[in-house]
């Protein structure tokens, strides 16, 4: 190497041979490293771009998505990438999904309750929409006081097809959620409505509404969260993603719950289906209904 070239490569003006001897590397290794610099720059730019996409998807999920869902979202966006690479980049850049915490129960058993049989028996699956629903309630805290949310979830799609919010948790709250589910969920005759044994669900008002809608009521055992695990799991998602702070007003909670259920969860949040892979609840419904539609 001539002096001019050595000066360009080494600002101190030291010969390459001298620097290689000091560092204990061969000149061929040095020149090989130099030759790969353009490729390394390209790879670094690609990695920086990928990390940026991961951050956008992670923020869009309210910080909820871990590596599997981030990987699925990237593939849906047309980015072909290995899940192990996503895991590595998220670990290196400390991008972490939300870990769910087990919530405390809200519903309480009535003293003279009329119980229904457990028709689910911890089988939280359904071959088609409108066949099996699970319901539960939770409380959210605001500066104006507590507010309560009741939901009805279709086990075939895991879509929240019925929900209601109120400043109380009397029986009319889950009844309102059930009526919404019946109006939009295309329920089958004899559709199962499964809940815990809270007083709201053993009430005459709720039991009458179930019969009126041509449904069958089902209940888990007392004190066993596993008997209503699908509903418990959904509320864990809700609490992890939007229930981590105290809202200023009840109106803010209503708006946040609406946005989470109708915009983010049902339409955007990816969930792993055993047959279809990572898709949203609404996409699951569309796929199942398409598969069940007879050919013309």
TrEMBL record:
Coiled coil: none
Residues passing through the membrane, by range: none
A Pfam short name: HTH_21
Record-linked InterPro entries: HTH-like_dom, Integrase_cat-core, RNaseH-like_sf, RNaseH_sf, Transpos_IS3, Transposase_IS3/IS150/IS904
Residue span, Integrase catalytic domain: 125-289
PANTHER family membership: TRANSPOSASE INSF FOR INSERTION SEQUENCE IS3B-RELATED, TRANSPOSASE INSO FOR INSERTION SEQUENCE ELEMENT IS911B-RELATED
NCBIfam families listed in its UniProt record: transpos_IS3 (NF033516)
Free-text function comment from the UniProt entry: Involved in the transposition of the insertion sequence.
Name of this chain's protein: IS3 family transposase
Species the sequence originates in: Streptomyces beihaiensis
Species lineage: Bacteria, Bacillati, Actinomycetota, Actinomycetes, Kitasatosporales
């Amino acid at each position: 190497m001539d002096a001019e070239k050595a000066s360009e490569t080494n600002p101190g003006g030291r010969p390459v041979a001298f620097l290689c001897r000091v560092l204990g590397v061969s000149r061929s290794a040095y020149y090989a490293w130099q030759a790969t610099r353009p490729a390394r720059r390209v790879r670094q730019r690609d990695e920086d771009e990928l990390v940026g996409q991961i951050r956008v998807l992670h923020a869009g999920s309210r910080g909820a998505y871990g590596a599997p869902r981030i990987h699925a979202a990237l593939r849906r966006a047309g980015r072909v990438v290995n899940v192990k690479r996503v895991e590595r980049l998220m670990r290196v850049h400390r991008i972490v999904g939300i870990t769910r915490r087990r919530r405390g129960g809200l519903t309480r058993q009535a003293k003279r309750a009329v119980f229904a049989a457990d028709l689910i028996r911890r089988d939280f699956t359904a071959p088609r929409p409108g066949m099996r629903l699970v319901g539960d309630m939770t409380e959210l805290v605001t500066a104006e006081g507590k507010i309560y949310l009741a939901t009805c979830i279709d086990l075939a799609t895991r879509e929240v097809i019925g929900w209601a919010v109120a400043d109380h948790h009397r029986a009319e709250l889950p009844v309102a959620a059930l009526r919404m589910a019946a109006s939009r969920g295309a329920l089958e005759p004899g559709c199962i409505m499964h809940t815990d044994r809270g007083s709201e669900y053993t009430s005459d008002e709720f039991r009458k509404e179930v019969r009126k809608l041509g449904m069958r009521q089902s209940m888990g055992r007392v004190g066993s969260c596993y008997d209503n695990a699908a509903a418990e799991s959904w509320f864990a998602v809700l609490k992890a993603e939007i229930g981590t702070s105290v809202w200023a007003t009840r109106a803010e909670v209503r708006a946040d719950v609406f946005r989470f259920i109708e915009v983010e969860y049902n339409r955007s949040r990816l969930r792993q289906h055993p047959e279809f892979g990572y898709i949203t609840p609404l996409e699951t419904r569309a796929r199942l209904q398409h598969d069940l539609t007879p050919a013309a």
